[in-house]
């Protein structure tokens, strides 16, 4: 059955899984299960452990190699799972030397790393869009987040390396690229001259005129730079879809999270984005049931969804992460956190449906994915009335909305 790569968590892990696939193959590993874990929530870790146990049952005797953020933080716990033969840290999983070595556990000091090299990937096995890592790690210490301990401090890929990685993906047929990182808007602070994310995007689009679409992963509302704002207003190839790392809509909860923005800042970012580009669509990450959150504070987050017009939500019931300050704060009962998460998701669905209905009657240009679904520049899902090959782009006249998917006729 060959190499089986199981990826959990963020888009950065998607990039790194493809790098791992290449490194493992180059090291002569022909039969194995590679599990790239996530540690952002307890649920993410549970799913990874479940997948590891399933792999051990389904492919007895086949090496299971575990890596990623959860493995970086608790290597011994994953080394002890049935069938696991190796554990690699987040730096080691991207090292040819580590894949060629024989040690059962290679997990180094992630905080000691000082540079990030470009990862050159030919393509992505399960995606029609390509992902480009531009930044790694995080210098901030939000009280709920364990990821800086698993990824290290913020490190940026030099502009030339980003352009080279992007060019390779465009040459292999990717018509849309997504810039990814742990803290994307901190890009460049550690590089000579401190270039901003906006400057990187401007250079990338200038040097790759053949790239039709560029998308950004999650942005910190406190760090969107002037160049990026100008590109949002002026550059059609930068997709009109921003995803914001918001987390909460109440100022006291944001302060206890140690976020660097207030509720008013999120509303200001939303208003500015729509002023510069009226058709832009916004998404956000939100945490439900953060420690000490009362009903009024949750109501402020719930209200923010409609007030800021957040159409694409990633909602997480809070789960304590060992070693973080929030884990020592007075907890909200788990069933309350889950109920609040469901209410946030329902509010997000209402905003999403409102946005999708606003596209009916319009002509949209979609990038086809697998399963008969294409995505508009706003990331709205569209099912055309005739088949289109994955990876191709097509114009569709939207006719209706059905089960959360826009339907339309090929033009």
Share of residues in strands: 15-25%
The average pLDDT value, as a whole number, equals: 95
Radius of gyration: 21 Å
Approximately how much helix is present in the residues? 25-40%
> How would you sum up the global shape?
globular
Uncertain parts: none
Alpha-beta content class: alpha/beta
User: What is the CATH domain class of the largest domain?
Assistant: Alpha Beta
Taking the sheet with the most strands, its summary is: 5 strands, parallel
Written account of the structure:
Helix 7 packs across helix 8 (about 195-205), helix 8 (about 195-205) crosses helix 9 (about 225-235) and helix 12 runs parallel beside helix 13. Strand 2, helix 2 (about 40-60) and strand 3 form a beta-alpha-beta unit. The chain has 13 helices and 18 strands. It has three domains: about 5-110, Rossmann fold (3-Layer(aba) Sandwich), CATH 3.40.50; about 130-355, Alpha-Beta Horseshoe (pyruvate-formate lyase- activating enzyme), CATH 3.80.30; about 365-410. It is about 35% helix and about 20% strand. The protein has a five-stranded parallel sheet with strand order 1-2-3-4-5, sandwiched between helices. It is globular, with a radius of gyration of 21 Å. It has helices spanning about 10-25, 40-60, 70-75, 75-80, 95-100, 145-150, 160-170, 195-205, 225-235, 250-255, 265-275, 295-305, 335-355; strands at about 5, 30-35, 65-70, 85-90, 105, 130-135, 135, 155, 175-180, 215, 240-245, 280-290, 310-315, 365-370, 375, 380-385, 395-400, 405-410. The mean pLDDT is about 95. The protein has about 400 residues and is α/β, with parallel strands linked by helices. The two termini are about 40 Å apart.
